[in-house]
Fold this sequence. Notes:
The protein is mainly beta. Helix content is about 15%, strand content about 35%.
Amino acid sequence: MTFPGAPSVYYGDEIGIRGAPDPDARYQDRFARWTFPWDQPDEWDRDLLEYFKAVIALRHAHPVLRRGEFIPLYSQGNVFAFARHGEGETLLVALNVGSEAEAVSVPASGSWKDGASLRSLFGSGQASAVGGGQTMLSLPAREGIVLRIA
Length: 150
């Protein structure tokens, strides 16, 4: 929801539908998608559904996520960070896809200066003030953070 372009959610991802072996032995596709369980809402992953609703709301609340400039900032190991700039704001997005927490120093973009304030909009990571052209981030395993830069 923070990357450029139209988001794409494959049906059922928002409630945690899994794949299953195809009952027809000719195909044996262990990644076949189950049908959507409309009549079994008690089986839906409600936490995952709420997460999807929150990131969709974030995208709707910040036009920069739909139309802003994309500025890659950091890509090392399991961490990727970028900024979205325009529409009257700058957001910093950082993701840790690894199974261990990461602390990284992300270069500040030309769209914000040393001493800029950082306000967390989404996620559970931590960020320290911008200084020396860097923003320090602490990201839990398999988490991300979206920050407003002002």
